[in-house]
Design a protein that fits this description.
By secondary structure, this protein is mostly helical. The chain has a domain of 58 residues. Helix 2 packs across helix 5 and helix 3 runs antiparallel to helix 4. The chain is elongated and about 50 Å long.
């Protein structure tokens, strides 16, 4: 299952997993990334539940926070250590 998802998200993963620079990775980086991503997805869900109305401008934070949360979850669960370090900007 994980290999199928990695193949599906390979365009995103390849961008973060590429490179040959030295990187600094700690296991806490992945944990914090997953927690922050879940918080972003929760925030996007809360906006959907609280703010629906006639205007569609409330969808802007849904796309921003939801997209950031989804990206973090994909990198956190499917990416390698280099991808997680690249998200944090660790060198």
């Amino acid at each position: 299952m994980k290999q199928m998802l990695q193949k599906l998200f390979s365009p995103v993963l390849n961008r973060f997993e590429s490179g040959d620079q030295v990187y600094s990775y700690k296991s806490s980086h992945r944990t914090i990334l997953l927690v922050m991503s879940m918080l972003f997805c929760g925030l996007a869900s809360a906006v959907i539940l609280v703010a629906p109305g006639q205007e569609l401008s409330y969808l802007i934070p849904v796309f921003v926070f939801g997209g950031g949360g989804l990206l973090g979850l994909v990198i956190g669960f499917l990416g390698n250590d280099r991808a997680v370090a690249k998200i944090w900007g660790s060198r």
